[in-house]
Amino acid sequence: MQIIAHRGASFDAPENTLAAIRLGWDQGADGVEFDVRLTRDGQTVLIHDADAKRIAGVERSVADQTLAELRQLDLGRWKGKQFAGERIPTLAEALAIVPRGKVAFIEVKCGTEIVPELKRVLTESRLDPSQTVVISFATAVVSAVKTQLPGVPVYWVVRLRDSTGPTWTADALAKNAKAINADGLDLSADPMITADFVQSMNGADLPVYVWTVNDLVAAKQMEAAGVAGIATDRPGWLRKELGS
User: Fold this and answer.
1) What is the pLDDT of residue 164?
2) The pTM of the whole model exceeds 0.90
3) CB within 8 Å of 171: residues ≥ 6 apart
């Protein structure tokens, strides 16, 4: 089972920064997950929210700013003085520090408008296509990326439960994933993910990853179910606690 650093080692470092990604590798993560959006001048940058208000106090939309404008923001100080001056990275910069044998999980947080630039960056990367997994909640993005980059694994991100209870059955998940040509599933960690569930998805050639697990009991449940990987904000801690 792989341990994936969610937004990098984001418990200890500012999320979606090179500092967090490097720390994820230092903590022994098998992969790192980070979020990408498209800037006004067509650059792919790492950021989760539609604006930088939460992490830099600036409410202006990422899509309305150029890379140069976004580079002026300090994305590290909110996490601690030791991270002051941390700037927004581009996707190319993040991929450049992926070690041999490790994997980058690239979550697209915008629409299909990012796909041509995503294709350019991934094609120019030194990484093997198997080291770059594109993930998205948006079915249109999953389909578009798979069409443009058939050699790159693309996983569909799904929240399995809302306030009323489970929102999907295993059969419906598999059917919809196949309809959009997804290569796997990235699911919210949920009690419905059992060994039988995972075996069913594996039988449909849909490996199951889960997010975001910072609780040891939940992590052990997911491990017992046989998931392919767990995303966590604390990769070093989780690996130590799981004893591997």
Assistant:
1) 86
2) yes
3) none
